[in-house]
Amino acid sequence: MQPVEAPSPNYDARALPISMIVLHYTGMETGEAALARLRDPEAKVSAHYLVEEDGTVFALVDEDKRAWHAGRSHWRGVKDVNSASIGIEIVNPGHEFGYRDFPEAQVHAVIRLVAAIKDRYSITRGNVVGHSDIAPTRKKDPGELFPWWSLSRLRLALPRPTRGLMDPHWNEASFLLALERFGYDVSEPRAAIRAFQRRFRPEMIDGEMDAECRMILLALLLPQPQGD
């Protein structure tokens, strides 16, 4: 896979080693508009890569540079997520402009890209995350339609646990402590729970802790979570 070079001026120097991959959707009406914005010096946003719906990959910022894709964010104690991550924008109109399924060619391109980056920097599955995971109060992307299972079955992301589930019967305070231990910013509990659900229980995103959420989270905190 040879990305199309489309340099963006929107970057600066990293302050941390690369340890994460952050997946976004573009949330704009067309891929052309998203590519233009990510290269616009006035916009002050960028990513390392953009993946079109037909699977074309554009390279915008060199991996050794700090692209501006994460904004105010937090994951597993890291607050300068831009410095620690590779950002991948995936063309999709998003919730504002007609959110839809991600085409097969696009998903395959994302898989190839994530696999190469993950191997290059020895990134753990738990650090391949969505924008909503690192910024739960602000973001929904890549959203509940993104096929995380297609990455997790190749060990490129954590699976949704489905086997050996047990309910720890945590109260909400204990659940939030566990969610924080897993990596989320829980300063706004409802937002954190919705982000967790959007990633690991996308069929019901209500911001309410329940037995299924407790079981999924417990399994994710154990070694080698098992999913389908």
From TrEMBL:
> What InterPro entries does this protein map onto?
Amidase/PGRP_sf, Amidase_domain, NAMLAA_amidase_2, PGBD-like_sf, PGBDSf
| Keyword vocabulary terms for this entry | Cell wall biogenesis/degradation, Hydrolase
Which is a GO BP term held by this UniProt record? peptidoglycan turnover
Q: What is its EC number?
A: 3.5.1.28
Please verify whether the record's keywords include Chloroplast: no
Q: What class of enzyme is it?
A: hydrolase
| CDD domains the record matches | PGRP
List the molecular function annotations (GO) for this entry.
N-acetylmuramoyl-L-alanine amidase activity
Stretches assigned to the N-acetylmuramoyl-L-alanine amidase domain: 8-143
Entry's Gene Ontology cellular component terms: outer membrane
Signal peptide residues are: none
- Spell out the reaction equation it catalyses: Hydrolyzes the link between N-acetylmuramoyl residues and L-amino acid residues in certain cell-wall glycopeptides
Query: Which family does the UniProt entry place this protein in?
Result: Belongs to the N-acetylmuramoyl-L-alanine amidase 2 family.
Which protein, by its recorded name, is this? N-acetylmuramoyl-L-alanine amidase
The protein's organism comes out as Sphingomonas yantingensis
